[in-house]
C-alpha cells in the first residue's frame, strides 16, 4: 500500500510539472519518426545506414558543452550538424522517439526527454526539419526506459534486430571497453565477426584513421559502430562512400540489462557503462577472453 501511494504521489508531481512547464515546449513540433519495425525494415530491405542523435550529439552542436567521453570542437559540431541536415537515399537520420511521443516510456525517461526539450528544443530546431521522416533512435535503446519490459515484447524487438546481421559478415567498430556481444548471443547468427578497437574517450581525435581503417576492412561487410558521437558521423561518411554502416550505440548494454532483468541502469563486468553510477572491473572473464581477442583485427590508439 505504501509503495502504491508513493508511486501515485510521484506520478502526480510529474504530471503537475509537465503541466507547469508546457510553455517551454509550446513550439516544439511532433516530429515524424518511424516505428521500430519500419526503421528496421528499411535497414534490411533497403540496406540503409543509420546515424542516431541522442542528447549527447545535440549538446555538441553548441560550443559551451562537452561530454564525459567526447570533447567538443568546431569540427565535430560542424560534422554533426551536416549529418542532421543530410538526406542521402541510403541513409537514415534517427531521432529520439519522445520527439514524437513519450507514451510508451516510464516516468523517469519521460521526464528526462521533456526536460531536455524544455532546455534545448528551440535551439536544435534550427538544425532539424519537421516535414522530414526520421528513423527511430530508440531501436538500440529498446529496454530500460520503456514501461513494458516483458520478455515477449523485448524478445520480439531483439529478434527483429538480429535479422539485420543474420548470415552477414560484420565488422564491429567500438571503444576499448565496449565489447559488443562478449558473453551474450546477440551476434551469434552472424556469418563472421571482426573488430576494430578505438580509444575509450575522444575517439574523434582519430577520426581520419578510423574512417580509413573501416574503408579498408569493411568492404562488402555490415559495419556496426558503437563509438558515441563519432559513430553518428562515421555511419554517414561511410554511407556516402556506399558502405552499409549502422550506429548501434548502447545496443549491447540494453541487451545485457534485459538478460539481467534489471530495472535501472547498472554496471556490467568487462564493459564501460558510462550511464551507470559505479563501474565494475573491465577484466574479461577468462572463458571469453580468447574468442574476443581473436576477433580483433586492428587496435587504433591516439
From TrEMBL:
This is Glycosyl transferase. GO terms for molecular function: transferase activity. Keywords: Transferase. It comes from Chryseobacterium hagamense. Residues 50-275 form the Glycosyltransferase GT-D fold domain. It comes from the Bacteria. InterPro entries: GT-D.
Amino acid at each position: 500500500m505504501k509503495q502504491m501511494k508513493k508511486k501515485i504521489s510521484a506520478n502526480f508531481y510529474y504530471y503537475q510539472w509537465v503541466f507547469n512547464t508546457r510553455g517551454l515546449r509550446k513550439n516544439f513540433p511532433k516530429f515524424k519518426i518511424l516505428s521500430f519495425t519500419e526503421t528496421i525494415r528499411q535497414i534490411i530491405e533497403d540496406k540503409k545506414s543509420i546515424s542516431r542523435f541522442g542528447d549527447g550529439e545535440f549538446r555538441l552542436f553548441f560550443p559551451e558543452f562537452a561530454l564525459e567521453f567526447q570533447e567538443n570542437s568546431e569540427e565535430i559540431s560542424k560534422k554533426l550538424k551536416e549529418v542532421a541536415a543530410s538526406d542521402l537515399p541510403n541513409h537514415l537520420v534517427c531521432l529520439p522517439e519522445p520527439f514524437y511521443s513519450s507514451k510508451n516510456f516510464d516516468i523517469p525517461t519521460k521526464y528526462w526527454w521533456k526536460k531536455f526539450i524544455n532546455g534545448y528544443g528551440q535551439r536544435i530546431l534550427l538544425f532539424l526539419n519537421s516535414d522530414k521522416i526520421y528513423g527511430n533512435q530508440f531501436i538500440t535503446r529498446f529496454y530500460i526506459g520503456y514501461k513494458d519490459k516483458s520478455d515477449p515484447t523485448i524478445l520480439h524487438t531483439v529478434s527483429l534486430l538480429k535479422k539485420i546481421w543474420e548470415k552477414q559478415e560484420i565488422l564491429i567498430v567500438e571503444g576499448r571497453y565496449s565489447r559488443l556481444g562478449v558473453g551474450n548471443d546477440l551476434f551469434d547468427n552472424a556469418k563472421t565477426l571482426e573488430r576494430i578497437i578505438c580509444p575509450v574517450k575522444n575517439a574523434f581525435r582519430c577520426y581520419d584513421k578510423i574512417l580509413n581503417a573501416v574503408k579498408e576492412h569493411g568492404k562488402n561487410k555490415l559495419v556496426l559502430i558503437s563509438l558515441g558521437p563519432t559513430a553518428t558521423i562515421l555511419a554517414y561518411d561511410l554511407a556516402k562512400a556506399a558502405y552499409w554502416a549502422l550506429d548501434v550505440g548502447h545496443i549491447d548494454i540494453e541487451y545485457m540489462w534485459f538478460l539481467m532483468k534489471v530495472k535501472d541502469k547498472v554496471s556490467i563486468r568487462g564493459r564501460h557503462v558510462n550511464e551507470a553510477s559505479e563501474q565494475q572491473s573491465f577484466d574479461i572473464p577468462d572463458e571469453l577472453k580468447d574468442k574476443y581477442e581473436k576477433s580483433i583485427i586492428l587496435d587504433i590508439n591516439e
